[in-house]
Design brief:
71 residues, 3 helices, 0% strand, flat, mainly alpha, single chain
Amino acid sequence: MLGAVTKANTRWGSDPDRLVNKMREVGLSWEGPDIDAPFPWSFALAKEITGFSFSEDMLSTRFLGAAVRDR
């Protein structure tokens, strides 16, 4: 299912609810058919998971990206 668009209440894996409490702590809604994930709350969750603080300066930084196609 990698790369598939799914609904917030459709989770799988050995511990599908592992991050639910952290999501609630930062103000993300996960209950219902769609994820309500405004940008700042998404970064707050990333900080909780990784321990890495994101700054406003990062938002103005250019990031290098590339499309990877299946062969």
